[in-house]
Amino acid sequence: MTQRTESTPAGPSGGFLAEVKDAVTTRAALLVLGVLALQLAFITSYIGAFHHPEPHEIPLAVTAPADQLTRQAVQRLGALPGDPLDPRAVENEVAAVTRIQNREVDGALVIDPAGPTDRLLVAGGAGASLSQALEEVVGAVEKAQGRSVRVVDVAPAARGDGRGLSSFYLVVGWCVGGYLCAAILAISAGARPANIHRAVIRLGTLLLYSLAAGLLGAVIAGPVLDALPGSLMALWGLGTLVVFAVGAITLAFQGLAGVVGIGLAILLVVVLGNPSAGGAYPYPLLPPFWSAIGPALPPGAGTYTARSIAYFHGNGARGPMLVLAAWAVAGAAVTLACSVARRGRPGAAVGSGLPDEDPAVPPFAGGAQDPAR
Fold this sequence. Notes:
Elements: H1 16-23, H2 26-50, E1 58-63, H3 67-78, E2 85-89, H4 93-101, E3 107-110, E4 117-122, H5 128-144, E5 148-153, H6 166-189, H7 196-224, H8 232-257, H9 260-273, H10 288-293, H11 298-311, H12 318-342
Parallel strand pairs: 1-2, 1-3, 4-5
Antiparallel strand pairs: 3-4
């Protein structure tokens, strides 16, 4: 004779609220709130940077046949309300063009007292919005003096480089590849490497990816689409450095904060870096906060360098390249340091449902784990 047993329903009891508590953990809720904060920061950063572009202290060379005329023009242009220009006297037109090509100034006013028309030299390759801002500001001043101005582009953007934005979009693409490559390593093999050897393998993988991504991006922007002129080898080197720097930053953040590090990398590169990169609006047209941080972040340093390579023979690129190199070195160093501090315990893979410090994640034991960790 068998004894009848009563079955109990699977899963938690207690109604809908209990189901919610079981389905949505505290950790998951906090991550969702973090995503919401990241989204709001994205909206605030982009709209804050782009909603009201206004020229501020645009470097402008000024020259005239007589020194007195030059000084008067510099004084007049420097006294404009809001300080839209930062005028400086130069010896002659040749010196003015040299300053533009060296990226020391963004334009030049060549005064001709023998006639009613002066010339404004601009560099379209540095961004169409910047050239237009110079034309509007200087044109208004000239009109108030009963004079006119003729615009001459001494460094025009290539025909396939609409409004000089190709450099910006190329660098954005490289940045996306950098943090996605690092994020995929976290998804497949744990947010944190198990030891320094695994960290070196990740950095080596990232370097190989960076070489390929830098070359292919430069080929697409150059020979394939004919959007950017300049040295293909120089663009390849820049692309490799941009991708590796952003990827190393992401690996470093993952080493410090686990899965949350991916969000921190997006905050730095996408939320703060892209709108301040000087792409759609170069630095003199951005609000103070964005114009201040832009040159120090990878998208801004990369965009400035790409334009220098394409239109200014690489002039002015040394500082931004050092910025990118600093990010790359710092990211790699922090990644290695974090792997040493982990002492053989990898972080859980993204999507595994395990927290980074969960006991279910086994410590490193010989070669039993995936080498990509």
